[in-house]
Design a protein that fits this description.
By secondary structure, the chain is of the alpha+beta class. It contains 9 helices and 21 strands. A hairpin with a 3-residue loop joins strand 17 and strand 18. The longest helix is centred in the middle third of the chain and has 18 residues.
Length: 359
């Protein structure tokens, strides 16, 4: 398998800098996800690792070999890398067996070895029974598994996947996430996976690199990056969250937009703050016991959850309750809200200006 070492890589297309000082090591056997919005630079980083792009500056090592940097450039076919693209890119005139065998065929691998390797990898991706079928006889998920098998058949050191599930429907995407993760565990292969889907990243990754405008905002495990985001962009990108401006003082945070109501706070910040509250961290309680009180305006039944909107002061607070709670409270009813967890960030200064205007 492979370790990927990225040293101060920057990539620019003319005046447009799409990656800035990417500096990290992907360890042998890790499942790494490059996550971020469209245009953030994640696919560019993947293409640099694959050898489809050259960095403007910096160095890339695969194991101890310099693959890109300075005057050195190892072409893609000599990097021992398998790649799966967003489009399945399977040959329509070849059956499953021949599609998967193609990388070995062009290397002129002996037929007996090709047969052995293809049969092994088809078994891994659960396609052995479809070896003689053509792509137009397969579902989208099966075609994507053909592409995955073709990437794995030559036993690459490194597997790169560029949004491979985005063309699949929701249920198939979910099942394929776990299939890819199980294959990675079975083979012990190093994977670098590109997606803009935070659910995919959370479900599959050992570590997530969240990128915005070419800069890594945070690198961490899914649990840490969700529960301990480095900044407001990270908190906002991963999961559902709402931000409320407040003032931290005397052991509490007061929210002008929530009718001057407050929550307890014993943290280090004082003055203007921005509080991030995830709706699953708010629960209904009696009016007397609530950290906040408001009026239930709407409920949306989603099966597993009851997605609610509560009017608190001049703002609406989102609450995600268990699905079984649907309609146990009535629209228009006064309710109490317990805030079980929240994150506090420094404010951008806009609240202080608002308070100055009000006084």
């Amino acid at each position: 398998m492979a370790t990927v070492t990225i040293k101060h890589i920057t990539k620019a297309f003319g005046d447009n800098v799409v990656l800035k000082e990417f500096n990290e090591t992907f360890h042998d056997g890790e499942f790494i996800t490059l996550l971020g919005p469209s245009g953030c630079g994640k696919t560019t980083m993947l293409r640099i690792i694959a050898g489809f792009e050259k960095p403007t500056s910096g160095e890339l090592y695969i194991d101890d070999q310099l693959a890109s940097g300075g005057k050195t450039f190892v072409p893609p076919e000599k990097r021992s890398v398998g790649m799966v693209f967003q489009s399945y890119a399977v040959w329509p005139h070849m059956n499953v067996y021949d599609n998967v065998a193609y990388p070995l065929t062009i290397k002129k691998t002996p037929k007996a070895e090709i047969k052995k390797q293809v049969e092994r990898v088809l078994e891994i991706v659960h396609l052995s029974q479809y070896a003689e079928r053509f792509p137009n006889q397969l579902s989208g998920g099966q075609q994507q598994r053909v592409a995955l098998a073709r990437a794995l058949v030559a036993a690459p050191k490194l597997l790169l996947l560029d949004e491979p599930l985005s063309n699949l429907d929701a249920k198939l995407r979910e099942s394929m996430r776990f299939e890819i993760k199980e294959i990675q565990k079975e083979l012990g292969i190093t994977v670098v996976y590109v997606t803009h889907d935070q659910t995919e990243a959370m479900a599959m990754s050992d570590r997530i690199f969240l990128i915005n405008r070419g800069v890594v905002q945070q690198c961490d495990t899914p649990e840490n990056i969700y529960n301990q985001p480095a900044n407001q962009f990270v908190a906002d990108f991963l999961g559902k969250v709402e931000f409320f401006k407040g003032v931290a003082k005397n052991g509490k945070i007061t929210f002008p937009a929530l009718g001057g109501q407050h929550i307890k706070y014993d943290g280090p910040k004082t003055g203007a703050v921005e509080v991030a509250i995830r709706p699953e961290n708010i629960s209904f309680t009696s009016v007397k016991k609530g950290d906040l009180t408001g009026v239930l305006e709407a409920q949306y039944y989603l099966g597993d959850v009851d997605d609610c909107r509560v009017r608190v002061g001049d703002s609406v607070v989102r609450v995600i309750a268990p699905g079984a709670a649907f309609k146990k409270l009535k629209d228009g009813q006064e309710v109490g809200l317990t805030v079980d967890d929240y994150l506090v960030f420094d404010d951008d200064g806009m609240l202080e200006k608002l308070l100055e205007i009000q006084t």
